[in-house]
Amino acid sequence: MRIGFGYDVHRLVADRPLVLGGVNIPYEKGLLGHSDADVLAHAVMDALLGAAGEGDIGRHFPDSDPQYKGISSLSLLSRVEHILNGKGLTVGNIDSVIVAQAPKLAPFMNEMKIKMAKSLRTEPYRINVKATTTEGLGFTGTGEGIAAYAIALVLPAR
After folding, report:
1. Where are the alpha helices (DSSP H) in 17-125?
2. 72: annotated binding-site residue?
3. Which of 68, 83, 114, 157 sees the fewest Cβ atoms within 10 Å?
4. For domain 2-156, which CATH number applies: 3.40.50.970, 1.10.10.10, 3.30.1330.50, 3.20.70.20?
């Protein structure tokens, strides 16, 4: 078995959709980035790539490459699954946490698990999504941005 850790953060801005775990969340701001800026999917991808010894998402999907402009992070997550598959690896489990003062994310977490599991060609029970606030402290607490952390276990494919 192999374990990887991922982290991502993006600034919240007006006139952008808020996408987390592939789910469009109703909110007055969205995350700024080259792709859809889905911090949860990005943290999960980095954790999986790290577990596979394959660097990070910047190596595979650089923001300097126009083909990734506005791309769905679920599409990139599917590409990460192909990288794992090519190395004879599969998802054991993923545990993740979104750090955001607002909006409330509990109503959307199951859909996030389902969408990410579909992109990874695995079962939703292998993915855990949590959310927390920072009690008003730091950039997430003041609403300037959202962060996400993830840890992933990958196993040899059967």
Report:
1. 39-51, 57-60, 73-86, 109-119
2. no
3. 157
4. 3.30.1330.50
* Whole-number Å distance between alpha carbons of 73 and 3: 21
User: What is the pTM assigned to this prediction?
Assistant: 0.97
**Domain layout of the chain by residue ranges:** 2-156
Per-residue pLDDT tens digits for 106-150: 999 999 999 999 999 999 999 999 999 999 999 999 999 999 999
Q: What is the pLDDT of residues 39-66, one digit of tens each?
A: 999 999 999 999 999 999 999 999 999 9
Q: By C-alpha distance, which of 85, 92, 87, 76 is closest to 126? A: 92
Q: Establish whether 119 is an annotated binding residue.
A: no
